Amino acid sequence: xxxxxxxxxxxxxxxxxxxxxxxxxxxxxxxxxxxxxxxxxxxxxxxxxxxxxxxxxxxxxxxxxxxxxxxxxxxxxxxxxxxxxxxxxxxxxxxxxxxxxxxxxxxxxxxxxxxxxxxxxxxxxxxxxxxxxxxxxxxxxxxxxxxxxxxxxxxxxxxxxxxxxxxxxxxxxxxxxxx
Length: 179
Hints:
The chain is mainly alpha-helical. Helices cover 73% and strands 0% of the residues. The mean pLDDT is 90.
């Protein structure tokens, strides 16, 4: 068996599931429950780790689209600080997005910058013109569903999804173009 992260996670899951979890005393239900959750988390990571970077890049593009839509509506000469923060985060994200060899932590860092800037803009919405407020509302609402579908689909193997309307398959979402 080759040395891969997936194989390491599978081996850790098997060890947790077959050796460690069964040896936890039955009079400690919390420890038994937690060991089973760790085993399930390791199994989940082993199945999904191959999609993680692609998922993160897809998320980066989705949040970049949200930010671009908001920024396109802003034509004020004096921008509030939160809008300047969004513009800077969008510029950094664009620089990462065009690099096909961008490291995973660069991608997730750019996503964190964008989401933080969007959240700050939502909190500062009263400082914005009505045009930018409308663009904020419209772009966040429209752009959130694809991000939610992506994350629901990615985490579907955990078994926590209880909604009757299942998200589209992860492979289908990851092959879609961001619009």
